TrEMBL record, chains A, B:
Molecular function per GO: polyphosphate:AMP phosphotransferase activity
Top-level lineage group: Bacteria
NCBIfam families, sorted: poly_P_AMP_trns
UniProt protein name: Polyphosphate kinase-2-related domain-containing protein
Domain Polyphosphate kinase-2-related positions: 11-235, 269-493
A biological process from GO: polyphosphate metabolic process
Length: 497, 497
């Protein structure tokens, strides 16, 4: 895999000097165009052998291009805020918005390679990390990002020579860290696992570019050209047309049965039972959140449901059990300008709770496969891929100890009608009912279909959906609080083993 | 000061039950109106004696109102990301945007009171903290925020009784933390310093409301009513008319001399001197940023200047000295939607570097007193108060160890004309010149006046302005890098003492 990068590529000064001015000018223009279009972000990943000129190349690119439009990010020691959340959170918070370029040093590849090279884990875990990286990049590209991955290579001999020459040059000796030297001993392992990683993560949408690092002229020109060509191609390309080709249709129910139709909508609680059970479950919830095992977990509760199904009321019964300092409610409305400049899931990642905390999402990332699907706010390809993106997202949460509880509050059409009419008559409830609600109601069947598909495709052993029969608000509220309690207890019990 | 809150206020159940429904409805409506107008944020500060019902009241408000529009925030242990920045950073990052309500537990008052009560510092430091709080709140109110400050009080006897009854009630005993009990011993000190703080920070724009905490009915109604009245008054008020009355005019130069006019614009460096001096200063900068004393500091460099004065080129010469991982360049353009929903300085606070880091602002918070003043984007009252807000802001940076270096790159009109014309002719520089640049040029004298005022009012011993004679780019670049070096060395030397 590194054969072509060990043959001693070089460019002489004359050829180099002849090419640089035009390259530089073209890069600047592409950068400006990127900013003007503000249509996609550029993510440049910098990996490879120590001493192969990673830092120098990035420095040079910052000199050639306008450094004001480039964010160079380094990910070394995690902060405690990062340690309290899923590993990918630190990358999500650093993603460049559309129109900007982020250069990621010490990215997900460095982390997995360091771990494997130093024997922190074996191939199986490395492969998990590889799959995670692949999925992240696939998703970023689907969202329009341009990802350019550079691997700077040196043969073992070249590396040793380079490190030695750097050491002997007093002007540059500070550039070598002890880590670099250490790497010369781990070179073989690094290259072996590097090949595994590159082989499995070089994909059409985000291929690796292997750069021989010996000759600065060669390496600079090679990187500059790849960057320029990638930028120009992406700027000329209209991604609106992308990925629209082959969207496999979802099957429709071929008898009349549906998941929502199978719910027993007559379930109810009388007032006395309700009050007793609710207070019991609320006390249980309060206790669980104060349990010291909660420190190892976080809790995310997602509330979706028909309009007027009682999401707000259910959320308030959950909240009422708790000290307001323990939870945070995130109402999901239209994305802000900064959110629109990022991949779809970014606006949820930013609200992921730290360990020990509880976030309630009042509507959620499932908007993609519900309202956005039904109303045509995104393309079928976009919401189709959302199912697996969401599954990946939730898996990352769960892997990090987050307990994910998801509710669909279901009512029937007659109940909705009654509640709409009631809302229109009670003054302080009037703001809860809008034209949109009536419009959505006309699309009842389409929403039901979308809900069925959503549950079928995203209810899993790690983050199951709970369908809540909500014609009776009392029944629904008790079921919601109880379900959260059961999920927490299960997580606590599992951890103990 | 607490006399009225020790007389045993109470409301009987009947009166309470009679009032609550209407109060609740009105609060919900005000909340909805707040969201609709999205014109200002509401910040509720919760302080006072332990056991006086702070937590219970906030919980109740969350039940009465729609908790989805309220963020309850608690500030206990600082995270390492917070510890690496000025103390106020944690509050800035948690500010509610316009249209939302943030309830701050454990806010700046709790911190200063804890510190004083436990003898971490004496009155002088407490008074500094008080002044800081006052200035922060004044600024927030000037920016339109509604601040409501509640102090929950109990007499010493009441407090002891309440803690005891809570302890004896098995359902509530978990509510008392060891800290609460400890407070019963420090009650006297807490009340004494509390009075000092309240006396000095109860201002017309953000008065304290002292609530006797013994009777839940009384305390809940009292808080609910104050909240409602404050909200209704603010919603009815048009802040556009506020603070416009008395803006003291700035004096104008009464002879023909000006600060910028006094610069020696003939200063220049020949090529050889330039190359030698630049490389020397760059090496010095690289060394300083790698110095271990840098770990105690952060560096902020602000670049302002005439159009075409060479800000970009100067920034690049600074950047060229460094590893791109060491600095971050923040170009300041029009604020985003999320930034517009916050106080003016918010969008700069979010980019304040952690200790050990370096942030370069390409244009900055000084836009308020430059382009916004000259173009009339804000009112005279707004930019007039900006001088002291900026001084306060920079003082907080410097107090936290941030070295603040500010450059005004000055060129004369003839030089600007030549550069504009040159830019229009060179293809890859063409994007650097816009209609705006020509328009700004027509307002040369107004900008000069604004720069003079800015320097006079914000150049201080802690964060001085450096005026850079930039007709000769070489001279300017060397002066910029050298000035940064001198500032860093001075900071390092000072710390040593």
């Amino acid at each position: 895999m590194f054969e072509s990068a060990e043959i001693g590529h070089s460019i002489d000064k004359e050829a180099y000097d002849a090419e640089v001015p035009a390259l530089r000018e073209a890069l600047l223009e592409a950068q400006y165009e990127l900013k003007q279009q503000a249509r996609f972000p550029v993510i440049v990943l910098i990996n490879g052998i120590e001493g192969a000129g990673k830092g120098e190349t990035v420095k040079l690119l910052n000199e050639w291009m306008d450094p004001r439009m480039i964010d160079v990010l380094t990910f070394d020691q995690q902060t405690d805020e990062e340690l309290a959340r899923p590993p990918a959170w630190r990358y999500w918070r650093a993603l460049p918005p559309k129109g900007r370029m982020g250069v990621f040093f010490g990215n997900w590849y460095s982390q997995m390679l360091q771990g494997r090279v130093h024997g922190v884990f074996k191939d199986a875990v490395l492969d998990q990390a590889i799959t995670g990286a692949e999925r992240l990049e696939q998703m970023l590209c689907d969202e329009g990002a341009l990802i350019i991955k550079f691997w700077f290579h040196l043969s073992k001999k070249q590396m040793k020579a380079r490190l030695k020459s750097l050491k002997d040059d007093p002007l540059h000796s500070w550039k070598i860290s002890p880590l670099d030297w250490q790497q010369s001993q781990t070179y073989d392992r690094f290259v072996r696992f590097g090949e595994r990683v590159l082989r499995r993560t070089s994909r059409d949408y985000a291929p690796w570019h292997i750069i021989e690092g010996v000759d600065p002229n060669y390496r600079s020109l090679a990187v500059g050209r790849i960057l320029l060509e990638s930028l120009q191609a992406a700027l000329a390309n209209n991604p609106k047309g992308k990925h629209q080709g082959n969207v496999a249709p979802l099957g429709h129910s071929i008898d009349d049965r549906s998941l929502l139709g199978a719910l027993d909508m007559t379930l109810r609680l009388d007032k006395a039972d309700y009050q007793e059970q609710l207070i019991t479950e609320q006390a249980r919830l309060a206790g669980l959140l104060r349990d010291k095992r909660m420190r190892r977990h976080a809790l995310v509760a997602v509330f979706e449901g028909n309009d007027a199904a009682g999401k707000g009321g259910a959320i308030r019964r959950v909240a009422a059990a708790l000290d307001p300092r323990q939870y945070r409610i995130v109402p999901i409305a239209a994305p802000t300008e900064e959110e629109r400049a990022q991949p779809y899931l970014w606006r949820f990642w930013r609200h992921i709770p730290a360990r020990g905390k509880f976030t309630i999402f009042d509507r959620s990332w499932y908007g993609r496969v519900l309202v956005e699907r039904v109303e045509g706010f995104c393309s079928p390809a976009d919401w189709m891929r959302a199912y697996s993106e969401i599954n990946d997202f939730e898996e990352q949460l769960v892997d990090a100890g987050v307990v994910v509880v998801k509710f669909w509050l279901a009512i029937d059409q007659q109940t909705q009608l009654e509640r709409f009419e009631e809302r229109e008559q009670i003054p302080f409830k009037r703001y809860k009912i809008t034209e949109d609600d009536w419009r959505n109601r006309d699309k009842w069947d389409e929403y039901s279909q979308a809900v069925g598909d959503m549950v079928d495709r995203t209810s899993s052993e790690i983050a199951p959906w709970t369908l809540v029969e909500a014609n009776d608000k009392r029944w629904a509220r008790v079921k919601v609080v109880r379900t959260i309690n059961q999920a927490l207890e299960a997580a606590f019990a599992k951890h103990k083993k």
